[in-house]
Structures are given as structure tokens and as C-alpha cells.
Write a structure and sequence with these properties.
This protein has nine helices and seven strands. The protein is α+β, with helices and mostly antiparallel strands. It folds into two domains: 107 residues, Serine Threonine Protein Phosphatase 5, Tetratricopeptide repeat (Alpha Horseshoe), CATH 1.25.40.10; 116 residues, ADP-ribosylation fold, CATH 3.20.170.40. The strands form two sheets. It has a four-stranded antiparallel beta sheet with strand order 1-4-7-2. Strands 3-6-5 form a three-stranded antiparallel beta sheet. The radius of gyration is 19 Å and the shape is globular.
Length: 247
């Protein structure tokens, strides 16, 4: 089950997030409830329930929706949702603590800590770029950011979603053709903190980074390309983003 920004439920959640950011909580709440009603699979239900939970004014209601979100996340139990377990269990524990249920709160705090480990994703992994490279080459940290001029990156970034790597290639600096390489991490890696638990719970885009090199083991030539209009919107969105990059 791959995260897809064109999915209707995901789009409703994105629209709701935008309304939240503009202080329109009531309108956002209506969109999240609409997303819940339109959700047809476990991932969509997990995502929608997460956002409905955020808008509950009553702690008991919030806890109920968080537990619904967790129920669907546990059903899926793949790398698209495992990264959300720490924050889910943490929020559930905080609700239980507020409801004077210390035993249950302690259990869920422990679960939040337990799942806050290194990613378990086994790949395959991909890196999108416009650089012409060969099998056996190493991709290393220290390059310039594609999204912020003059910023030297302390990590090398990659993803387990082929189309996500394709988008990164399209947005990358350079005049060469878009390339997506199959890569293998040579050391430990972590969830990309720039996207994890930001707009979406956990790391549904399966985006990672490492201080150690990535070894190129192959190249992919077939992925879903963005239309010129879609790329224009992505570039405008990145240009408007004033947030700091966690380097």
C-alpha cells in the first residue's frame, strides 16, 4: 500500500491541513470527517481517524479516535505506518494520563519508547537525481540542497517509494535527464525528520537519510512522471516553504 498524494482521502486531508494552518478549524474538521466517511481501505481509515482525533475537544473522544487510528494501523502493520506507532502510542498515553488511568498510560508510554527505534524498512530503496552515475558508485553526504541554496547537506537522502524518487529527480538541480537509481545503504539510516510526523503521521512516504554513503546497484527507467503542471505546482510549493530544513 503506497502513499499517494492523488488519493482522494489524502487530498481531503491535505486540504484540511491547509485550512488548519489558516485558522479555519471548523472547516478543517468537516473535511476530515468527510475523509473518514469516504475512506474505503485500512490506510485511508487510519489517516482520516488520526485527523478527526486532533479536532476532538473532549479527551475521551480524542482517545477513542486515536484508538480507532491505531486499530487500522496495526491491521496494516507495514513500513508506511510503523513509523507512526511512537506518536500514536504517545498521544494515547497522554489521553489516558489526563483521564487518570496511570496503568494504561504507563503501558502506552512504554510502547511509544519501544517503537521509537531505527527504521525496519528493507527496501528496495531509490535515489532520484539528474547526475549520470554508474553501478558501484557511492552517493555521499555533503552535496548542496536541491531546495535551499548554499546549504550543504549532512546526510544523503533516499526513499522506498519509486515514484517519490522520480519526483525528487524531476525537482533536482541540474540539466541532465531525470534518473532513479536503486541504492543500498552502507550504514545505519533514520526516518527523514523533515517529513516524519509533520503534516502526516509517521513517515508514510518512507523517506530516509544516512550519514554514510549509498551504493548504486542499478537504475530504474520506468516510473510515474509528473505532468508539467504538477511539477510547476511542486516548485511553487517549495518556493513558498519558509520552514527550516532539519540538516
Amino acid at each position: 500500500m503506497e502513499f499517494n498524494p492523488h488519493n482522494n482521502v489524502v487530498k481531503l486531508c491535505i486540504q484540511g491541513i491547509g485550512l488548519e494552518e489558516n485558522g479555519k478549524a471548523a472547516e478543517a474538521d468537516r473535511l476530515f470527517l468527510q475523509a473518514w466517511k469516504e475512506a474505503t481501505n485500512d490506510f485511508e481509515k487510519f489517516l482520516a481517524a488520526h485527523y478527526v482525533a486532533r479536532h476532538q475537544k473532549n479527551v475521551s473522544d480524542k482517545l477513542n479516535w486515536l484508538e480507532i487510528a491505531l486499530q487500522f494501523a496495526l491491521r496494516i502493520n507495514n513500513d508506511a505506518v510503523k513509523s507512526a506507532f511512537p506518536s500514536l502510542y504517545l498521544n494515547i498515553a497522554q489521553c489516558q494520563e489526563a483521564l487518570n488511568k496511570p496503568g494504561l498510560a504507563k503501558k502506552n508510554y512504554e510502547l511509544a519508547t519501544f517503537f521509537k527505534d531505527k527504521p525496519t524498512d528493507k527496501g528496495p530503496f531509490y535515489h532520484g537525481t539528474k547526475a549520470a552515475l554508474q553501478v558501484g558508485d557511492l552517493l555521499t553526504a555533503g552535496g548542496n540542497s536541491n531546495y535551499k541554496a548554499d546549504l550543504k547537506m549532512n546526510h544523503i537522502y533516499f526513499t522506498a517509494l519509486l515514484n517519490g524518487a522520480g519526483l525528487a529527480a524531476a525537482l533536482a538541480n541540474g540539466d541532465g535527464r531525470e534518473r532513479v537509481y536503486i541504492v543500498e545503504p552502507t550504514g545505519s539510516f533514520e526516518n527523514d525528520p523533515n517529513v516524519t510526523d509533520k503534516k502526516f503521521p509517521g513517515n508514510p512516504t518512507r523517506s530516509y537519510r544516512s550519514e554514510t554513503p549509498l551504493k548504486i546497484v542499478g537504475e530504474i527507467t520506468d516510473w510515474v512522471r509528473q505532468t508539467p503542471d504538477e511539477l510547476k505546482k511542486w516548485r511553487e510549493k517549495l518556493a513558498e516553504n519558509k520552514g527550516e530544513i532539519i540538516n
